Amino acid sequence: MVQTVRRDALIDAVELLKALAAEVRLAVVVELGIAPRCVRELQAALRAHDREVSQPLLSQHLKILRDAGLVITTRVGTEITYQLADDRIGHLVDDAMHHALREEER
What we know:
With 106 residues, the protein is α+β, with helices and mostly antiparallel strands.
């Protein structure tokens, strides 16, 4: 039984990492770690960091994150606000980026 649970956890972790395996999605997670945002606000935040992303492409990336259970949405009228489903996702991405920075310094 323990081996089955462990294997399921590994499979789930692989799926989570696949969902994060794109620069735009990592940048979105970083931005959502700061505050919940709608697509327009995410586009502006990404643009401020020299990442121009069209609305359709950003929506595709958000769908991947949502389908993976990493972000949740709230609808107010016609506007959808995205936020991290769990703050630990933001910490995971922050840790990965800090690790990458340390590797560059070596």
